[in-house]
Design goal:
The protein is of the alpha/beta class and about 425 residues long. It is built from 12 helices and 24 strands. The strands form 8 sheets. Strands 5-2-1-9-20 form a 5-stranded parallel sheet, sandwiched between helices. Strands 13-12-11-17 form a 4-stranded parallel sheet, with helices on one face. The protein has a 3-stranded antiparallel sheet with strand order 6-7-8. The radius of gyration is 22 Å and the shape is globular. The chain binds flavin-adenine dinucleotide. Flavin-adenine dinucleotide binds near residues 45, 79, 113 and 164. Flavin-adenine dinucleotide (FAD) binds near residues 197 and 335.
Length: about 425
C-alpha cells in the first residue's frame, strides 16, 4: 500500500507534507548522496526522551525532516503520578498533547511503530503505512515483563495494578485504595533492578500512607522488596518514622521479601518465605525496553538496549540511536530527568554526525525528587559522562538526612518547578 494513502490526515497531527515527503525519498542511497536533500530523522516514542529529542532536532537544524511516531494523542506523565494515586492531584495535571511539537515543524504520526527493517531503514506502522529514515531514534520507554512473575499477566494487572505506566492503571489503584476499608493492608511488590525510577515505589508507599493516615488510620502498607537497599533509603526511612510511625513495613530481599508468584483470584502475593493476602496489591513486575526496541534488534538478552554513550548509537543496529528508559549504559538512571537530557544530547550528536562532525562529549545532568507528603520532599541529583564506554556518575548530591522542615518544603516547591520546566521543555 502506498504510504501517501496510508498516512491519513486523521493520524498525522500536523506537518503531513513533511512526513509524506520523508517517506517517499529513496532509502538506500549511500550517505553522501543526501548532501542536497534534508536528512530524515525519525523518533519512535513521544515520551520525555523522544519528544525532547524531536523538538531539539528541529531547533538545532530547522532543515531536518523530523518525524515523531507515537500511538497516543495525549501523553500521561509518570512523575507526580503517585500523587494522583494518593488523591492529591488529578490525572489531567499529568497530561500533555503534541500540538506544540507539531507546530514547531515536527511531523507527528499518531500510530504505533510495529516493525523496523534496519537494512532498508524502514519503519512499519500499525495501520500498514511505513516511514523511511536516515537516522532513527528509539525512545519507547519500558514494557512490563508479563512472563517474568508467575500469575502476573495483563489480566492480573487489572486486579493488582502496577501503575508503572501512568493512565488507567493509576486511576485503578487510586480507586482501589479509596474503596478499601479502614484496617486493610496495601501491599507493594517491588522488583529487582534495573527498573524505571528506582525510588518511585517508596514514594508511592509514602504518599499512600499520607492518604491512609488521614482517611483510614488503622490501615497498613507492606513493601515486599526484591532488593536489600534502595535509593535514598535513609531519607525515606527517617520520613516514615517522623510522618507515618508504625504504618509502613518493608521486608527486604534477605528477609524473604522477593515476590515469586501472585494469585490475583485471592489477591495473594507469594514470597520465598510466606504468603501475604492484600486488600489492595500494587505489583510492579520486572521490566524491559519497549517491545519495538526488541523488534528492531536493538535490545540484548537482558531486554535493554546497549548504547555508545557518546552519541547514543545502538551497539547492535546501525543508524539507530536509543535513549531514555529503553537504553542501558552504566550508572545512568531510568528517569524522566535523564531521558530528557539524553533526548537533547542525542539530538546534538545526530546533528553533528549528519554534518560530518565528531559528537561532543555529553554531560548529562539529572535531578530526582521524592515527595513523601505535601510540602515534604527530598532529592538526588547527578552528573553523568561517558567513561570507558559507559555513562558514569561523575558528581552527585543528595538532600541531608537531618534537614529541618523548611528545607523539605523548599524541595517540594523545587519538585513542582522541576516538573513544570521539564514538561514545558519536552511538550511545549
Ligand atoms: C510512579 C513513577 C514515578 C516517577 N517519578 C519520576 C520522577 O519524579 N522523576 C523522574 O525523573 N522520573 C520519574 N519517573 C520515571 C519516568 O517516568 C521515566 O523514566 C520516563 O518517562 C522515561 O522516559 P522515556 O522517554 O524513556 O519513556 P516514556 O516517557 O515512557 O515514553 C515512551 C513513549 O514511547 C511510546 N511508545 C512505546 N512503544 C512505541 C511504539 N511501538 N511506537 C511508537 N511509540 C511507542 C509510548 O507510547 C510512550 O509515549 C517515574 C516513573 C514512575 C512509574
Amino acid at each position: 500500500m502506498d504510504v501517501t494513502r496510508r498516512l491519513s490526515r486523521r493520524n498525522v497531527v500536523r506537518g503531513i507534507s513533511a512526513s509524506v515527503a520523508a517517506s517517499v525519498l529513496p532509502s538506500m542511497l549511500p550517505w553522501p548522496s543526501f548532501a542536497q536533500a534534508a536528512a530524515r530523522v525519525v523518533v519512535v516514542g513521544g515520551g520525555f526522551g523522544g519528544a525532547s529529542c524531536a523538538r531539539a532536532l528541529r531547533k538545532l537544524d530547522p532543515k531536518l525532516q523530523v518525524t515523531l511516531i507515537e500511538p497516543g494523542r495525549i501523553f500521561t506523565a509518570c512523575p507526580f503520578s503517585n500523587e494522583v494515586i494518593a488523591g492529591l492531584r488529578e490525572l489531567q495535571a499529568q497530561q500533555f498533547t503534541y500540538d506544540s511539537v507539531a507546530t514547531e515543524g515536527v511531523s507527528v504520526i499518531v500510530q504505533a511503530a510495529t516493525t523496523i527493517d534496519p537494512q532498508v531503514r524502514k519503519i512499519g506502522l500499525a495501520d500498514g503505512g511505513s516511514v523511511n529514515y536516515d537516522r532513527l531514534v528509539l525512545a519507547p520507554g519500558i514494557d512490563l515483563r508479563f512472563d517474568a512473575l508467575p500469575g502476573y499477566d495483563e489480566d492480573a494487572a487489572l486486579k493488582m495494578p502496577h501503575a508503572w505506566k501512568a493512565g488507567e492503571q493509576t486511576i485503578l489503584l487510586r480507586k482501589q485504595i479509596e474503596a478499601m476499608e479502614d484496617g486493610g493492608t496495601v501491599v507493594l511488590a517491588v522488583p529487582a533492578a534495573p527498573l524505571r525510577c528506582p525510588p518511585a515505589p517508596y514514594e508511592r508507599a509514602s504518599l499512600i500512607a499520607h492518604y491512609l493516615k488521614a482517611k483510614k488510620p488503622r490501615s497498613k502498607i507492606l513493601i515486599l522488596d526484591a532488593k536489600d537497599s534502595f535509593s535514598q533509603q535513609k531519607l525515606f526511612e527517617a520520613a516514615w518514622k517522623e510522618l507515618y510511625p508504625g504504618m509502613i513495613e518493608r521486608i527486604a530481599l534477605s528477609q524473604g521479601g522477593r515476590v515469586t508468584s501472585v494469585d490475583p483470584a485471592t489477591n495473594t502475593i507469594i514470597t520465598d518465605f510466606g504468603n501475604y493476602t492484600a486488600q489492595v496489591a500494587s505489583v510492579i513486575p520486572p521490566q524491559k525496553a519497549g517491545r519495538i526496541a526488541e523488534i528492531a534488534g536493538a535490545a540484548d538478552n537482558t531486554g535493554w538496549c546497549p548504547i555508545d554513550p557518546v552519541n547514543f548509537a545502538s551497539k547492535l543496529v546501525p543508524n539507530v540511536h536509543v535513549i531514555g528508559d529503553a537504553a542501558i549504559s552504566g550508572g545512568i538512571p531510568k528517569s524522566a530527568s535523564a531521558a530528557h537530557a539524553q533526548g537533547k544530547a542525542c539530538a546534538a550528536a545526530i546533528v553533528n554526525l549528519l554534518a560530518g562532525k565528531s559528537p561532543e562529549m555529553p554531560r548529562l545532568t539529572g535531578a530526582c525528587y521524592n515527595t513523601v507528603a505535601p510540602g515534604y520532599a527530598f532529592s538526588l541529583s547527578g552528573v553523568y559522562q561517558p567513561r570507558d564506554g559507559q555513562f558514569a556518575e561523575v558528581e552527585s548530591a543528595t538532600s541531608p538526612v537531618n534537614a529541618p522542615r523548611e528545607v523539605r518544603a523548599r524541595e517540594a516547591e523545587a519538585a513542582e518547578n522541576w516538573f513544570k520546566t521539564i514538561t514545558v521543555d519536552a511538550f511545549g
